[in-house]
Write a structure and sequence with these properties.
It contains no helices and three strands. It is mainly β and 68 residues long. A hairpin with a 6-residue loop joins strand 2 and strand 3. The two termini are 16 Å apart.
């Protein structure tokens, strides 16, 4: 994947934003529910990914990227 993310709808460069969390630590995270399911199945329990939002300034589409 290119280091510059672009909107799939209007092809404008996406801007990285900051998520405000809702858990006790104020952080959101993405973890696999089951080791057998989904694209996160290769992630160990100690590998917790953080959702990073990217927003298109033109159409406001928001994409989340699971990053370490």
């Amino acid at each position: 994947m290119s280091s510059e993310r672009v909107c799939p709808d209007c092809e404008e460069p996406l801007e990285q934003m900051e998520l405000h969390g809702t858990n006790a630590l104020g952080e959101l995270s993405i973890v696999s529910q089951s080791p057998e399911d989904g694209f996160l199945s290769s992630i160990r329990a100690d590998e917790i990914l953080t959702p990073v939002p990217y927003v298109c300034p033109e159409c406001r589409r928001t994409l989340l990227s699971a990053e370490e």
